[in-house]
Task: inverse folding
């Protein structure tokens, strides 16, 4: 007999079935013994009476025992049906039961929603925490969301391409995570802050439409709801302008939300577009919360913010608001290369850029831009950021050279998947939608990482740890 899912029992009255799963909520009524069996499809009630040979062994099961049940599906008497369960009209009368694994007492309940439990404990025992229905639902929704997006982008001519994890530093405004090279002592790979340069190089290669569900790594100081690694839907397109990219992104979000979150209401469609200046002057923020009622969990107020300044002053230094690969633009919108150079020389703060952000309910959920494809402008931007020309050539020579072989005009965007799913699933932070998140302080409490490594490993890497005196 073939194993079936618990949920299927609802249509199998009268049939023999084999089920596997975890035991939940045991109810011992003396002559009758009930429990709920939970597998990934859901819950079904199982019952055994004292006449059955297995009645003795059933008494050994505990909450969260792993069992196999063979039995017969029967209709429950109408007054005992449970309208809250999809399988609530049936139950499985056990003929045979085997306990496959007996649990110790769990450190916490797994049938509540879990918000009441200390988060550090939940993260230490994440594999148990993930047994709870809320988190399983979040993971399933994440899967469905990514699947939908993959299909959507495939239907729109994109291909998914993996780019390296062991790579070279790319400036996205954060510190890099570094990986020492054993074979080249003293040299390091950097983990990608984003696949930015690779995706642009794919445009040089003529792929035209790229996407990737990309893991990004940024070594930032712990700041509340951030993760050292997070997931972006990274996209890049050739021969497009800003509006092409924004309308595609808009269509994608509307379709995926209508399909997977039909209870949500998108406040304004097409998404409103505000200039950076309007957003700041009207709302005092470049990620305004445009909901009518911020207490309504089903309202989604998307907007695009456009016309960002190219540079901002941070600690008396000019930095790019997005990243250096973004195309700067004259404030009057004219495309005059000489005038642009002139402004880069004399008044870089006056320049706008081709950056755009996607915001949702007061969060920035993605940013992107049309890129600079003129190597001289790119070099100039890096110089303004304080890099010597030689250093730029050393660090970004590959990109500059690539552009010299013919480069299609291109642009892209990278919506942050974790944050979007947090909002769509009404969760208070991104950890709730990530299978194995780190704490706000960047620790993996389950694997106990970061952790020390053996002296031998350090020696192989020609690395010495300096003792810091307190
Ligand atoms: N790489 C950028 C980021 O991570 C997104 C982009 O410009 O496409 O913000």
Result:
């Amino acid at each position: 007999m073939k194993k079936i899912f618990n949920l299927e029992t609802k249509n199998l009255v009268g049939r023999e079935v084999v089920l596997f799963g975890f035991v939940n909520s045991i109810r011992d009524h003396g002559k009758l013994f009930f429990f709920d069996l939970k597998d990934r499809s859901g819950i079904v009630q199982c019952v055994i009476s004292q006449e059955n040979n297995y009645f003795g062994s059933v008494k050994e099961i505990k909450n969260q025992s792993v069992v196999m049940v063979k039995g017969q599906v029967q209709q429950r008497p109408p007054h005992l049906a449970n309208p809250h369960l999809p399988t609530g009209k049936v139950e499985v009368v056990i003929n045979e039961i085997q306990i496959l694994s007996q649990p110790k007492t769990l450190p916490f309940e797994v049938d509540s929603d879990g918000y009441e439990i200390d988060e550090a404990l939940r993260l230490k025992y994440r594999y148990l925490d993930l047994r709870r229905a809320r988190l399983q639902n979040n993971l399933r929704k994440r899967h469905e969301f990514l699947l939908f997006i993959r299909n959507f982008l495939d239907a729109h001519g994109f291909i998914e391409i993996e780019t390296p994890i062991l790579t070279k530093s790319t400036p996205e405004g954060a510190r890099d995570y570094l990986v020492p090279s054993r074979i080249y002592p003293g040299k390091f790979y950097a983990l990608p802050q984003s696949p930015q340069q690779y995706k642009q190089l794919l445009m040089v290669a003529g792929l035209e439409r790229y996407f990737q569900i990309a893991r990004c790594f940024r070594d930032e100081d712990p700041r509340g709801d951030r993760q050292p690694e997070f997931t972006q839907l990274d996209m890049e397109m050739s021969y497009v302008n800003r509006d092409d990219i924004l309308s595609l992104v808009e269509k994608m979000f509307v379709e995926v939300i209508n399909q997977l979150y039909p209870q949500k209401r998108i406040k304004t469609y097409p998404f409103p577009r505000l200039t950076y200046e309007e957003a700041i002057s009207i709302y005092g923020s470049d990620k305004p919360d445009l909901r009518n009622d911020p207490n309504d969990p089903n309202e989604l107020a998307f907007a695009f913010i456009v016309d960002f300044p190219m540079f901002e002053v941070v600690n008396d230094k000019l930095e790019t608001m997005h990243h250096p690969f973004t195309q700067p633009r004259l404030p009057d919108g004219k495309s005059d290369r000489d005038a642009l150079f002139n402004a880069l020389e004399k008044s870089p703060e006056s320049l706008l850029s081709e950056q755009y952000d996607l915001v949702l309910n007061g969060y920035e959920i993605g940013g992107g831009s049309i890129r600079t494809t003129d190597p001289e402008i790119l070099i100039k931007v890096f110089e303004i950021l304080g890099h010597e020309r030689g250093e730029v050539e050393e660090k970004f020579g590959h990109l500059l050279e690539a552009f010299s072989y013919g480069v299609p005009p291109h642009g892209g965007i990278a919506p942050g998947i974790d944050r979007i799913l947090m909002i769509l699933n009404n969760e208070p932070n991104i950890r709730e939608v990530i299978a194995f998140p780190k704490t706000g302080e960047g620790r993996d409490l389950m694997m106990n990482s970061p952790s020390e490594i053996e002296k031998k490993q350090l020696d192989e890497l020609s690395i010495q740890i300096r003792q810091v005196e307190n």
